[in-house]
Amino acid sequence: MGMQIAHIMASGMGGIRTAGDLVAWMQMTRKMKIQDAKTYVAGKLGIEMIDLTNEEIMRDIREDLKIATVTSIAGSPKGIRAKKKIAELLDINIRSVDLFKTQFD
Question: pLDDT tens for residues 71-80?
């Protein structure tokens, strides 16, 4: 994942502070071009594409959808719980989430 991590950091969308991580997931899992990935994520979040980079809007959305924030909030999903929510929201498979689920079957 070395190159993908570098791409996430270079994409300039702020990672988990905004929607950079969500857009990067779509680029990695669905091989989407950045504009297509942004359009897809904005649609899933129910916001305009310009709002993907707005930290204030994205913090509220991340809290509401329980898909993690930079600074944790008591009782809010973190780690694998947040990844599970992201996988459901974006309709993607995240390997670590899939592996985690198999431990409880």
Answer: 777 878 788 8
| 14, two tokens | 């702020």
CA distance 5 to 21: 10
Give the distance, in angstroms, between the CA of residue 101 and the centroid of all CA atoms in the same chain: 19
Long-range (24+ apart) CB contacts under 8 A made by 43-50 are: 44/89, 44/90, 44/91, 45/19, 45/89
CA dihedral 14, 7, 80, 26 (to 10 degrees): 90
* Domain spans, the chain: 2-102
Q: How far apart are CA 18 and CA 68, in angstroms?
A: 11
